[in-house]
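Board notes (copied after class):
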Amino acid sequence: MPLTFAAHSESALPLHLIEAGGVDAWLDGQPDRIRAWVGASTFTGAQGTALILPGEDGTPIGALGGYGSAASRARTRFPLAAIAAQLPEGPWQVASGLPDAAAEIEALGWLLSGYTFDRYRAQSAPVARLVAPDGVDAARLETLAAAEALTRDLVNTPAADMGPEALEAAARSLAEARGATIEVTTGDALLAANFPMIHAVGRAADQDPRLIDMRWGSEGPAVTLVGKGVCFDTGGLNLKPAGSMGLMKKDMGGAANVLGLAQAIMALGLKVRLRVLIPAVENSVSDESFRPQDILTSRKGLTVEINNTDAEGRLVLADALALADEETPDLIVSMATLTGAARVALGADIAPFYATEDRIAAAFEAAAGPAADPVWRLPFHTPYEEMIEPGIADLDNAPKGGFAGSITAALFLRRFVTDTPAYAHFDIFSWQQSAAPGRTKGGLGQGPRTILGALPDLLGL
């Protein structure tokens, strides 16, 4: 099902949103037949419920949708999307009860409720389509939905079909569709091009490690997005237990999110010079694996002591961030499924971010609510720097002790962005653990809508 709005049509059936306890007020002035039908039902306006209204011949002439209370809606990101799943096929138009302030995000939620991942098996999805509410930017919302669908598809695809080669192919497909240029450095060429840590992490896998470098746009501020593309993470020689390895197909969620964000930026025609950098690797086990206690020299020249081969994401990001920093763009943003510590701190639903400047954080915080894309700032706490300094090398990739794991990972990355003042890092989960309105179980975009909404303020667009 396309994630697009239905065309305006006289055949669209009206959907009346009813808050909890508001049924009687809506029934005032309704025909006796409708009053009797609703009165005989159990419909109360409870959130996510629906009641089809029949015509005299029994065919639907509209529906009531339960919009719940303000308290219940605060616990659901897309309340309207819960109703979409209860409606029969055809175009629907919200006739009453939708607050103007909620129209944009509720309409987006409805679009996202139509997403399915059907590459391996046919999947059902809500078949009711929404006519875009008056006053919303329908084209922009469709662009956001398409970008989210790209991210979800990439994360949901298992590593057997989404290794470094397939991730490169996805980036090339996007570049071709949007008129971007792309260069890829692969295998031993990474060493010649001075990306030693990307090479070290990925060299044990059957598919060569690579650095994907995509560019688009020739005017405006320079924005560089860096996404962690670890297509599967065994943990390397510090092998993960089975319970921790089960979701590692999503360890390229940072790459999937920056590709979705890049697609949206290009589709909306933002006046920026966009660069996307993705170190794409698989952290595998073989006689080529990098080892605990190895010391790697990064592109930046900083040496890194390996105290856990399962802390590989920051290594590949470090080389890519060093490259990004060499051009001193107006803004660098990295996204990665980097630490379990971030989930312990904020859970799966909120993406923590770090920012070198307060204005960056303020822009993200202002954009997150309207985008229904919750984020929360954590600090680049400089006193913790000593935790990532092992003594034998410049940096430690896995500080002992277990405290402040997300912060120390972010501090590690910040060491590779020294010339660009404006840097932000998102430590995302990129996974929906159970189905919710507008969010199917599986891959999820976290942060891109917030970043997109903040760019005009940050860059003066």
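Comment from the instructor: The first strand starts at residue 13 and ends at 19. Residues 138-156 form the longest helix (19 residues).
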